[in-house]
Amino acid sequence: MAEQIRVVVVGAKGRMGRETVKAIINDEALAFVGAVDRTLDGVPVSQVLGLDAGEVQFSTDLEKTLLETQADVMVDFTTPAVMKGNIDKAIALGVRPVVGTTGMTPEEIAAWDAACKERGIGGLIAPNFAIGAILMMRFAAEAAKFLPHVEIIEMHHDQKLDAPSGTAIKTLELIAQEREKMGQGHPNEHETIAGSRGGDYEGMRVHSVRLPGYVAHQQVIFGGLGQTLTIRHDSINRESFMPGVVLSCKEVMKYEGMVYGLENLLF
Ligand SMILES: NC(=O)C1=CN([C@@H]2O[C@H](COP(=O)(O)OP(=O)(O)OC[C@H]3O[C@@H](n4cnc5c(N)ncnc54)[C@H](OP(=O)(O)O)[C@@H]3O)[C@@H](O)[C@H]2O)C=CC1
Ligand SMILES: O=C(O)C1=N[C@H](C(=O)O)C[C@H](O)C1
Fold first, then answer.
1. For residue range 61-77, what is the model confidence (pLDDT) as tens digits?
2. Would 151 disulfide with which of 17, 110, 183, 205, CB 3.0-4.6 Å?
3. Which residues are listed for NADP(+) binding in this entry (predicted)?
4. Which ligand gives the minimal distance to the CA of 137?
């Protein structure tokens, strides 16, 4: 059997982190070797997550964990504020970042791409790991060629820190590649309540709903003469992201540079 890919999960006790630990443990090609989080230093992962995680204990020290475990890959599901330093540390140590945390700028991605290439390692930033979401974005970009009037409504659980979602931003970027920048709605429209028309990305409007009960959902609505088209994706649980995370941990071993978007590994 080929040597297993050694994976450290950062944010391991969080909603996505614990699902990721489970997925790695269940994949024969991957070895779960380290768990980092903000608290729980020294506490066995098995005890907290109720999984068969062997001897692995939580650590609050990312650098130490990456070095001691001889990690090949670091998976990050933390927060927008924390993720950036984690990526810098991983790249500096030659550990390939697979990042699901959202909230970085195009300039930061470009800098990490250069750093990964310099270090001779791969990296992946995926605003969404669910295959259905990747297809939703692809179909939306295609539809925009024919129906350029478009708005996005994304709906998430009420513990989400960033708005709009990383998925909505990626969708807007992909659509923007396919249509001319243009205004939408009436030129003299007026907001009686500020923010009613949502965020503006090159004339496209984006609306973020945050409510208990949701996981991760997005609809892209196109309007044309006498018709509308709605492309909708729903993640009804966090397992939906796991095939993408597992695939990324494997693929990231095969190239150099920071790739932005799981679609680049799939199509
Ligand atoms: N790309 C994708 O497909 C998906 C991406 N996401 C993104 O992933 C990120 C995490 O989401 P989610 O799992 O729901 O969030 P959670 O809040 O459930 O998990 C985040 C974890 O990171 C921990 N953390 C905070 N600070 C640090 C630190 N300094 N070092 C290490 N760990 C830290 C938190 O600890 P504590 O709670 O103690 O502060 C928590 O355990 C978000 O940005 C979200 O948008 C989510 C779903 C899918
Ligand atoms: O915070 C979440 O939950 C999610 N975040 C990602 C995003 O910002 O797009 C992916 C998914 O929507 C779930």
1. 999 999 999 999 999 99
2. 205
3. 38
4. 2
